[in-house]
Design brief:
By secondary structure, the protein is an alpha+beta fold. It contains 21 helices and 17 strands. Among the domains are: about 230 residues, no CATH class; about 60 residues, no CATH class; about 120 residues, no CATH class. About 35% of the residues lie in helices and about 15% in strands. Helix 2 crosses helix 3 and helix 18 runs antiparallel to helix 19. The N terminus and C terminus are likely disordered.
């Protein structure tokens, strides 16, 4: 996509190309000078309250998870007077961070984002491959077909055809009669797969776009909430005009802009989906809650398709943001309700055509026959700030909700903190008891018989303390009793609860650096086996990432580029989106070892022709976290590289063959630097005269045997 000058009306968050956005208008009869809501605004407020009430139970789960992560006791935990220790062992935080690290490792383990584009194995109406033999094309045929003087090289393949074959129709058209279906059958032919080439170009474009918009930052935030609360939300892709600094010849700042798709992290707390939906595919609508200050509200007026007059009216009514109860916990107990902010609701979803008519919405004539329409609406203080048709084709709600652990009966998933909620409570209880018991057993319980002491004394005990006894009082006045120490038993129960947390989360302690591993884990190979088994537990989570994030995001990026950044080269193939999260999980040391072992097994002449070594090398590079596109040659480069290496080998002087050890005038034994024959003698039988290797005296005729003829050096013809 080419860079452009600064467009009019930048929309860095929700921009779409003007030609693809249908702006809907309300009839002028709708009152705008008071808080009398329009039908559409009232409808969105009602849907928001439905979603808000439906997720109350989920919010309680999230608050408990957040408190366990932060090490904060909730209001439901009551301490007795005998409990002095308020210890909170933050094992939940350790487990959540370990799960988060695993998710990040899956998303960013390789050099590429784990979303790819591949040609379908059984394409529809697209040739799998075509081949072209450059040696079969003469200079005269080029002149005849192209009407251009062109000298066909004979030593190397034509790189321009290698690059353009099957992609640009105008380039292929002059030599279409020389193209044949299928792969080439000789060493000089060029085989090209149009669909594969189109897939590579689209995949590279998508990866470049994600990198340009710093998508990794938003993905990491999404992964953290996914591990902690059980659900991660990602918004997009939507159009974003990125600014590239540039100065003209006179030193004036003249930036360039490029419209690229962008993804954005959305906090799960601000997400209010359709209460009847169990995933985004079933949702009829979703609402995102924004908390904007006055400056941000005024900034909306500069964004495309926002109504300036409605924004001004919403500002006149003043801030109306009401702090939710859970925000006090998230913000460390801030209880102030005085928030100078505006609550703005962003609605994505369908509305009935009847509702649109009741709300006096002017629907375009080509859409009036539909029973429902897809819209994007922003409202604040009863005012409709933005009202447009869903600009995406096909229509979709631009959000992805990724569950850590799938809840088949609800929208929001289950996270690590919730899975170990009970074990966290047990560990806290046993640790508090252990600390209190250690404090009691570490000090003596003092008993004092005051009848034996002089009245009025200070009864506190400290080193060097002196008590005065009554004269003639019998017996002992001060006694010390030691409280029994059961902290070891309590710590054993704590360790048991910690083991249960390993089982409930599927994240063993040794995977995040805990010591004390016994048994098979004490060896390097045993630890490798344990780590491999631990990786099995995360596979279900990775599959959820594949199904609910990578695949929808890849399809959305593909559709975005086909709709807004169309290029005819992407149509030369039957392409499909491939999520590679599970592959990223398998790209580890074990996979590398297996690939190397496979290459060794198939290196013989009988099996080598059946192996796709280019694919094996790419997988090996990926398993080592290397960029295969940067370190591996393509087919043309490999041919040229092999030819160059062969030429270099032919120019190198050949080394003469070394005479056999022990022969007259031969080179000395490397194990015998003295040259006196003092080498190591291995046990064995003495050679018989005339046998191979026999060097004893025999009258110079080698025991009557004729000497073997010497072989000429390599490359020298026999005389």
């Amino acid at each position: 996509m080419a860079l452009m000058d600064k467009p009019s009306g930048l929309d860095p968050q929700e921009a779409t190309e003007a030609d693809n956005v249908v702006v809907l208008e309300e009839d002028g009869d709708v009152e705008q000078d008071n808080l009398e809501y329009s039908g559409l605004s009232s409808f969105i407020e009602t849907q928001f309250r439905r979603s808000k009430d439906n997720r109350l139970h989920d919010e309680e789960r999230w608050l408990m998870a957040y408190r366990n992560y932060r090490g904060i006791y909730g209001p439901d935990v009551q301490f007795t007077d005998s409990e002095k220790s308020k210890t909170f062992v933050k094992i939940t935080k350790t487990k959540v961070l370990a799960a988060y690290a695993q998710l990040v490792d899956v998303l960013f383990a390789g050099s590429k984002f784990p979303v790819g584009i591949e040609a379908r194995r059984y394409p529809n109406n697209v040739a799998d491959a075509v081949n072209f033999d450059p040696n079969g094309l003469t200079d005269e045929k080029v002149r005849e077909k192209v009407d251009v003087e062109y000298k066909v090289p004979r030593t190397v393949v034509r790189p321009e055809l290698q690059k353009d074959l099957g992609v640009y129709k105008d380039t292929v058209e002059p030599v279409k009669d020389d193209l044949e279906m299928g792969a080439g059958t000789n060493a000089g032919s060029i085989t090209y797969e149009p669909a594969k080439r189109a897939a590579q170009l689209m995949e590279k474009k998508m990866h470049d776009q994600l990198e340009e918009t710093n998508a990794s930052k938003h993905l990491r935030s999404m992964a953290f909430e996914c591990a902690l609360f059980g659900t991660g939300i990602l918004k997009g892709p939507f159009a974003f005009d990125k600014e590239y600094p540039r100065w003209d010849e006179e030193g004036n700042y003249d930036p360039l802009y490029e419209t690229i798709p962008k993804v954005e992290y959305v906090s799960m707390w601000d997400m209010y989906p359709d209460p009847s939906a169990r995933n985004m595919a079933e949702a009829e609508y979703t609402i995102q809650r924004h908390r904007l200050n006055k400056t941000q509200m005024r900034g909306l007026k500069k964004r495309p398709h926002f109504r300036v007059e409605s924004i001004e009216i919403a500002l006149e009514y003043g801030p109306q943001y009401q702090r939710e109860y859970w925000e006090n916990t998230l913000e460390d107990g801030v209880n102030s309700d005085d928030v100078d902010r505006y609550e703005v609701l962003e609605y994505w979803g369908i509305i009935d055509a009847e509702l649109a008519e009741e709300a006096d919405i002017d629907i375009p004539s080509n859409l009036q026959d539909l029973d429902e329409i897809q819209v994007n609406v922003w409202i604040c203080n009863g005012q409709i700030l933005r009202l447009v048709m869903n600009p995406f084709t096909p229509s979709r709600i631009p959000y992805s909700a990724v569950p850590y652990e799938l809840n088949p009966y609800g929208f929001f998933g289950v996270g690590v903190a919730e899975n170990m909620e009970d074990t966290q409570l047990l560990m806290n209880g046993f640790m508090r008891l252990s600390v209190d018991n250690a404090a009691l057993s570490g000090n003596l319980l003092i008993e004092i018989d005051e009848t034996n002491l002089v009245p009025g004394q200070d009864l506190s005990v400290y080193p060097g303390k002196v008590f005065r006894r009554q004269a003639g009082a019998p017996g002992q006045a001060i006694f010390g009793t030691k409280f029994p120490n059961v902290s070891n038993e309590l710590l054993m129960m704590f360790d048991k609860a910690r083991q249960l947390s390993d089982e409930s989360t599927g994240i063993p302690s040794y995977s995040h650096g805990a010591t004390g591993v016994m048994g098979v884990g004490r060896t390097a190979s045993g630890m490798s086996m344990l780590m491999g088994a631990a990786a099995q537990n995360i596979k279900a989570v990775v599959r959820n990432i594949d199904d609910y994030l990578l695949t929808p995001l890849g399809k959305a990026l593909f559709a975005f580029n086909m709709q807004f950044n169309f290029d005819k080269q992407f149509t030369n193939g039957d392409l499909e989106v491939k999520a590679r999260g599970t592959e990223s999980l398998m790209r580890n040391e074990i996979r590398s070892q297996r690939l190397l072992q496979f290459m060794q097994m198939t290196s013989n002449q009988q099996m080598a022709p059946f192996v796709k070594y280019d694919y094996v090398l790419r997988e090996l590079a990926a398993s080592m976290d290397l960029d295969e596109d940067k370190i591996l040659n393509d087919q043309r480069e490999a041919i040229l590289q092999a030819k160059m290496m062969a030429d270099i080998q032919a120019m190198m002087p050949q080394q003469p063959q070394a005479p056999q050890q022990g022969a007259e005038g031969g080179a000395p034994n490397p194990e015998d630097p003295t040259g006196n024959g003092g080498g190591n003698i291995a046990p064995g039988s003495a050679p018989e005269p005339g046998a191979e290797g026999f060097t004893g005296a025999g009258g110079g005729d080698n025991g009557g045997q004729q000497p073997a003829p010497q072989q000429p050096p390599a490359g020298v013809p026999p005389q």
